[in-house]
Every structure is written in structure tokens, then in C-alpha cells.
Amino acid sequence: MSSRRSRSRQSNVSRNITDDQITDLISKLQQLIPEIRNRRSDKVSASNVLQETCNYIRSLHREVDDLSDRLSNLLATTDSDSAQAAIIRSLLNS
Question: What is the pTM of this model?
Fold first, then answer.
């Protein structure tokens, strides 16, 4: 019974987000996403902002994967006891 009450309270909290808060959050996202920030038009729909945000996050994931692969390849060609190898290993583990 208490878990039902807990879930009910959680859903009530999420319903308490106002339209103004959503508008503010969308505006903040707009400022963070380069594709939107660099546009000349100030009018962008909320759905477009969310879509561009998803696209941007995907591109960041691809970039991280690419950089990790490049570091792994560099590590494979580096003396495993060198200071450079230690730095690369620390980058890959963080």
C-alpha cells in the first residue's frame, strides 16, 4: 500500500511542473544546442528543440565512441610502461 502512495505522490510531483517551467527548460535547451543556437530565427517549436537535443546527444555519444577508439588504437601502439600509456589508460577509464 505504501508503494502505491509513494508512486501516487511521485506522479503528482511531475504533474506540478507548470507551463512556464517547461517553457523555461525548453529555452535553456535552445541555448545549449549548437544547431538551434546558431539559427537566425528565434522561433523554434518545443518538439523541434527536443528532437535537436536528442540528435545532439546522439552525436556526442558517437564522438565519445570515436575518441575512445582512437585512444585505444594509440594505446596499442604505445609502450605499455610509458607515461603516455598511463595517461591514455586514465582517459579511457574516466
Answer: 0.68
